[in-house]
Amino acid sequence: MPKTAAAERSDVAPKYVLVGSGARLHGPLPKGVERWRVADLPRRLREAKPRTVFISYGRGSTDAILKARLKELGRPRFAQLLAIEPPRMESVPSLLETFDLVLGLGSSYRWLPPRELVTVLSSEHARDRFIGGAIDPEAATVTLVRGDGETMVFPFSFFEPSGSGVEPDFDRLAFDDHGRTVVLGEYEAAADGILYESDAGYRRRLRELMSEAERGFGPSLRRLRIQKRLRREDFAPLPAKTIAHIERGAAPPPKPTLERIARRLGVPPEDIETY
User: Fold this and answer.
1) Residue 35, phi then psi, degrees to nearest 5
2) pLDDT at 24
3) Mean of the per-residue pLDDT values for the chain?
4) SS3 labels along 16-31
5) pTM of the model
6) Which of 132, 147, 177, 228 could link 111 by a cystine bridge, Cβ 3.0 to 4.6 Å?
7) What is the CATH number of the domain that holds 228?
8) Are residues 219 and 270 in the same domain?
């Protein structure tokens, strides 16, 4: 059967295109990443696939992409625009009509260094890395951007002081180690730790790599209890020996017990086994 337009589009591997003076990286680019000159945009855009992701390093290059694109009305939208320098606010409505997703609309965004950014974007681990983000002091939130473009929003309270007492400085957001580390001043948070606590899909993928002895409800409960800094004695009126017995087993406990444990952990009962 012939493929629909949507199916054909989803089969095309995304290409990453760098535009702007900040894109002058030394050395060869990773596979799937290209550098386009502003002067070549009218011609190159006619050949670009809908899944193309553009990384624009300047407001002028973003305007150039938009102007060249608007000369080709009626063509499918592109996948993403990642604006390292925020675009003009007047251009935002047109950009949102040109791209499925536009990232970097605010001046508070911070990004990985250019070389690390393109390396992460073109890697198979992109979804498990943070390429950038922004702080909203008024709402007391941290927005983090994953390598696949998904954004995640966390309250300041998510970033608890480290074991040595270092507190996050939300005025100094940065990203390091190819997206593996979120930096808040002297405070550092590992991407895998953030994702483990907040993304059930990420936890499921890790579980697939675990040995049989590490799987099941009991081991999951133990990991989550330790992560929540709870003792077995903290589930009263359930006895500590009951929690110990459940952690040594593989099957979930009866529903009333399961619901009581879940309330103490602060997670839905069905989520416990994802940890």
Assistant:
1) -115, 125
2) 64
3) 86
4) EEEECHHHCCCCCCCC
5) 0.74
6) 132
7) 1.10.260.40
8) yes
